[in-house]
């Protein structure tokens, strides 16, 4: 979603260029459009305006190229199709002229507000697109096509629950509306409801087994479920078929590489990441993915290419963020810590500009949780929930060592590792609502309304829904979502026999490791500023003290440093807390073969090392603000 101030500046430049053209100052207009193109290369109407200007100069071939670029980005541009039809006819290309005429006729059959809303959506003008469409729906009444367009706009605006509900309602009316079913599955994917998304993909594939978009949808759902092996071959099959563009090849290579990485096939993953970069040399996420292997080393040529891509005018913000974090890691590996810090700092600053995290909201949420979920509340609800010991929750802060703990436990014959499951956070949202900025429980008091029967049903739902991630049929399984430290009260209410391990890392090491790690688009948004990271660490310590006070002995604290210093003693302690016998296989965890999707996947496939304990000290001269913001948390963390 493009920030409103950027949209306003973009529109102002377009209006100025149009005014110059109308005054016949064509070269100046085109020069202004080139500057606009550097800033917004995917803005369809700038390419349409370029087409107008090039026609005025009599350059038909260049005008066609500009107009074709416009409709590739935004097919809902009637003026473009009209001009293209005429230009194709002038050069004698009657077949293309016929296609353009048909596209124009199709748009002319639609109500004008629908066409306008489609065009605005394509250009990222989401708020005006929704306004135009809702006004039309009030006047003309609802149709499934218009409602689908409204759902797509809301999906782009981040109103995920509204979009999902609207798409489900459309399918109730029109179950054979396959385009809507595809959109619905995509909404489920965004909501991390991967099993439901895969079921919808399977329904679509039953109708059209060879459809490339349906196959990609199925692959994405499998990745979300941690089912990596099938998608490796699926993406290979798609690559063997007719790909539409270099961008599609790059995406398929990237997705296949991610699956290979998760399965520990690092060399093959590197080859596919490199193949993605051959198709799209400035592909920031591919460069970052190589860096995020943690074990890959870049060549001097790689460094030059990344620096050139990062500095290129017109580079989109997210690619620039990816490149800055990749360069930070590459320079760190070379021991150039000053230059590395510069890229990490600039990457974080750019990422933070679009973050919605607010420290005050997180603090208020923690206070509400503490005030609501008291020792008396838990005492009065003793015996609620499902009496089942299967779940093992590994939680804490990101980059605390939780992937290592999961790998150690998953090396036990009775325990299956899954990954960072989203079910508990989703249940908290359903019960309490989520604030729009931090995604934390808005009204924890709603948990007090849970009856014993409802708590039991929710625990059973968790066990049922998480079966999709379990393939080894072992008695115990791990959910290592770090954010579950917010939801320990809910976990205890619905799963009172679950094992809970809090993995804790020394504050400076943990906080810096978060600062230099780029997370997914809307994940861990507290990590892009040192003050926010320190504040979040303090909230975490405060909340864990509360859980220890109201649920004494319920959570085992696992200091990461203890695991490094004495692996066997720490492992025996964790297993005993979960009622498991010690097995020597846990000490050779790096030999355990399983899918791992976190940034530490390659690191935990190696014997335990001490490197992570003091890496932050290379950056100590830049971390005084972090130390100051942590304050007494430096002493209390242990």
UniProtKB/TrEMBL annotation:
SUPFAM superfamilies: P-loop containing nucleoside triphosphate hydrolases, TPR-like. SMART domains: TPR. It holds the Pfam family Sulfotransfer_3. Keywords: Transferase. It comes from the Bacteria. One of its GO terms (molecular function) is protein-tyrosine sulfotransferase activity. InterPro entries: P-loop_NTPase, TPR-like_helical_dom_sf, TPR_rpt, TPST-like. PANTHER family: PROTEIN-TYROSINE SULFOTRANSFERASE, PROTEIN-TYROSINE SULFOTRANSFERASE 2. This is Sulfotransferase family protein. It comes from Caulobacter vibrioides.
């Amino acid at each position: 979603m493009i920030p409103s101030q950027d949209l306003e500046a973009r529109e102002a430049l377009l209006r100025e260029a149009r005014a110059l053209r109308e005054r016949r100052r064509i070269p100046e207009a085109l020069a202004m459009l080139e500057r606009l193109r550097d800033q917004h290369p995917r803005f369809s109407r700038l390419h349409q305006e370029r087409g107008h200007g090039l026609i005025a100069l009599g350059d038909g071939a260049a005008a066609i190229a500009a107009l074709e670029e416009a409709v590739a980005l935004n097919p809902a541009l009637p003026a473009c199709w009209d001009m293209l039809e005429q230009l194709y006819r002038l050069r004698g290309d009657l077949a293309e002229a016929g296609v353009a005429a048909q596209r124009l006729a199709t748009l002319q059959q639609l109500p004008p507000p629908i066409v306008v809303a489609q065009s605005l959506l394509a250009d990222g003008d989401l708020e005006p697109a929704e306004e135009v469409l809702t006004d039309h729906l009030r006047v003309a009444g609802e149709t499934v096509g218009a409602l689908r367009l409204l759902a797509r706009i809301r999906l782009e605006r981040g109103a995920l629950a509204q979009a999902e509900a609207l798409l489900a309602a459309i399918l109730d009316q029109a179950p054979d509306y396959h385009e809507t079913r595809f959109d619905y599955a995509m909404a489920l994917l965004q909501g991390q409801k991967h099993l439901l998304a895969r079921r919808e993909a399977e329904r679509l594939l039953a109708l059209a087994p060879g459809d490339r978009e349906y196959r990609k949808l199925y692959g994405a759902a499998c990745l979300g479920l941690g089912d990596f092996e099938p998608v490796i071959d699926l993406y290979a099959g798609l690559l063997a078929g007719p790909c539409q563009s270099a961008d599609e090849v790059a995406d398929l290579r990237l997705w296949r590489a991610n699956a290979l990485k998760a399965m520990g096939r690092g060399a093959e993953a590197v080859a596919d990441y490199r193949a993605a970069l051959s198709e799209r040399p400035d592909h920031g996420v591919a460069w970052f993915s190589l860096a995020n292997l943690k074990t890959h080393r870049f060549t001097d040529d790689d460094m030059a290419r990344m620096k050139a891509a990062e500095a290129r005018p017109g580079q989109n913000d997210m690619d620039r963020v990816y490149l800055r974090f990749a360069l930070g890691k590459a320079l760190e590996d070379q021991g150039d810590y000053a230059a590395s810090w510069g890229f990490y700092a600039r990457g974080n600053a750019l990422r933070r500009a679009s973050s919605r995290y607010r420290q005050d909201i997180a603090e208020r949420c923690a206070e509400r949780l503490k005030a609501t979920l008291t020792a008396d509340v838990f005492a009065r609800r003793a015996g609620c929930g499902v009496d089942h010991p299967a779940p093992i929750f590994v939680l804490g802060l990101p980059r605390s060592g939780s992937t290592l703990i999961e790998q150690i436990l998953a090396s036990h014959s009775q325990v299956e590792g899954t990954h960072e499951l989203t079910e508990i956070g989703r249940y908290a949202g359903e019960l309490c609502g989520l604030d729009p900025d931090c995604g934390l429980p808005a009204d924890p008091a709603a948990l007090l309304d849970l009856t014993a029967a409802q708590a039991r049903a929710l625990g059973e739902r968790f066990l049922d829904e998480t079966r999709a991630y379990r393939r080894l049929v072992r008695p115990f399984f791990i959910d290592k979502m770090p954010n579950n430290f917010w939801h320990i009260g809910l976990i205890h209410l619905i799963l009172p026999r679950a094992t809970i391990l809090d993995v804790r890392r020394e504050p400076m090491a943990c906080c810096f490791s978060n600062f230099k790690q780029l997370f997914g688009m809307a994940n861990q948004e507290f990590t892009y500023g040192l003050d926010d990271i320190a504040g979040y660490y303090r909230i975490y310590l405060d909340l864990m003290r509360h859980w220890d006070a109201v649920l004494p002995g319920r959570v085992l604290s696992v200091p990461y440093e203890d695991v490094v210093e004495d692996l066997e003693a720490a492992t025996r302690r964790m297993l005993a807390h979960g009622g498991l016998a010690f097995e020597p296989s846990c000490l050779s965890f790096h030999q355990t073969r399983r899918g791992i999707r976190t940034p530490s996947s390659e690191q935990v496939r190696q014997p335990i090392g001490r490197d992570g304990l003091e890496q932050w000290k290379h950056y100590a001269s830049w971390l005084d603000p972090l130390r100051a913001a942590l304050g007494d948390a430096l002493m209390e963390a242990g």
